[in-house]
Amino acid sequence: MSIEAIAALSSGMAADPISTAVVRPESNAFSGMLDQLSSLNAQMQKTEGDVQALALGKTENLHQVMISMEQTRMQFDLLLQVRNKVLDAYQEMMRMQV
């Protein structure tokens, strides 16, 4: 078992330390959030259709309908929590004195 020096390991990892240290925000982060909203809307509509089909007796797979409902609920709860955190951050910034 050989033990290498830390400098030997780190020299091969980062060829340009300045470019790796700069954090670049994604330019389309907002559009990604809107895509997530439209995805959640589509999932909610699909789940509603599945529940209606189950109620009308067109499907017998209760387990899949329940799994779909739970996935939709969890996605909605996540979206709601993110919205609450964004609103809290906005309100905190508005309270800051300049």
Protein architecture, described:
By secondary structure, the chain is mainly α. It has a domain at 28-95. Helices cover 76% and strands 0% of the residues. It has helices spanning 6-13, 17-21, 29-55, 62-95. Helix 3 runs antiparallel to helix 4 (62-95). The protein is flat and about 65 Å long. The mean pLDDT is 82.
Elements, N to C (H/E): HHHH
How many distinct helices?
4
Unreliable stretches (pLDDT < 50, length at least 5) are none
Largest sheet at a glance?
Answer: none
- Mean pLDDT, to the nearest integer, reads 82
Per the principal axes of the C-alpha atoms, what is the gross shape? flat
* Radius of gyration using CA atoms only: 24 Å
Q: What is the share of helical residues?
A: over 70%
N- to C-terminal distance: 59 Å
Q: Tally the beta strands.
A: 0
Strand percentage:
under 5%
